Amino acid sequence: MPVKVTQLSIGRFHHFHLARQLEKNGSLTAIYTGYPRFKLRDEPGIPAEKIHTFPWLQGPYMLGMRYGLRRLNWLNREWAWCAHETIDRYVSSRLHEPTVLLALSGSGLYAGRRAQQLGGLHICDRGSSHIRVQDQLLHQEYRRYGAEWQGIDPRSVAKEEAEYVQADWISIPSQFCLESFISKGFPADKLIKIPYGARLDRFAPSQCSHDTNAHNRVDEFRVLFVGQAGPRKGFVDLLKAFSLLQHPHKRLSLIGSLSPEAKSMLDAFSHEGVEYLGSVPNAELRGHYNRATVFVLPSIEEGFGMVMGEAMACGCPVIASMNTGAADLFTDGQEGFIVPIRSPGVIADRLQQLADEPLLRERMSWAALARVKQLGGWDAYGDAWQCFLTTHLMD
Asked: Are residues 100 and 21 in contact, defined by beta-carbon separation less than 8 angstroms?
């Protein structure tokens, strides 16, 4: 009999990709989420009766963030805390049989405890570094922007640390995350490292881009960034590196929202060659990856940047910091470059190298495609989870 798994994720994140894999392997009991049901219409492969939504706080919170709640720090923090607390207690009340609860960190303390009381297990799924390592890195980064940061809610820090101790295992997506937990005294045998996958069905090179060498054209060098631009993403390093790049037709395309700190940094740099595209529908991202010469993700702290896999699946080389999970996705100098955090000079050097060496760009583009196909996308992620569940949890 397959191991039965109940998932808990207040957002969508990577959990619905995993739910499809667990369902395919016969292991999914249910997935609980704070996402509104109407936002989950593009999640095929999961029976509707296995998706349980509890959107009463998370839904309005998501809407509020879109319309300015982020600026109201106290309300933002209280709302987020209540959203995580209520879905945790709700799922705890719904568990009545032994199960393996795979719960996103911050939302699984009570539900995880209930699962254990019923004879099941609790796996705390942490998508980033240890919460105290994350907090320290972000405090340091905000100071670089000349900004004050209130830090992670102390209640959230305490709750997550209680989850880390309570859980039977902690799952993380990268070596960077694993090392952050080891630095805080956690034994390696309590940690499950399974890197995320990529949507190979959605992200792929367009036929014309490789046939005509479109994203290696000599008249334009297009740098692409996808994500919420701000201190966590190393945005100041990206702007500095781009300003140092010497190319007559350079362009930096920014896709995603801009934090207030990012907006102030944009004002401090020349806007020449910089285009802010805002949020772009997921279906349109493939075209942007295909038009890009290189994708850059200089994050200060990120568990595993799934956008890297999306870019590579479109044949776009990647420049990423060590703190993005890049080392679990590609090899430095083969499919792209891995650089230290806070190193705009190094990023600029790598950009210049790609700008000056079209054959290197072409080689890295094909290597990125081959690497992503070798990794196998989300199927490989599901297979790794199935291997863990089968090896460690079946009698």
From this structure: no
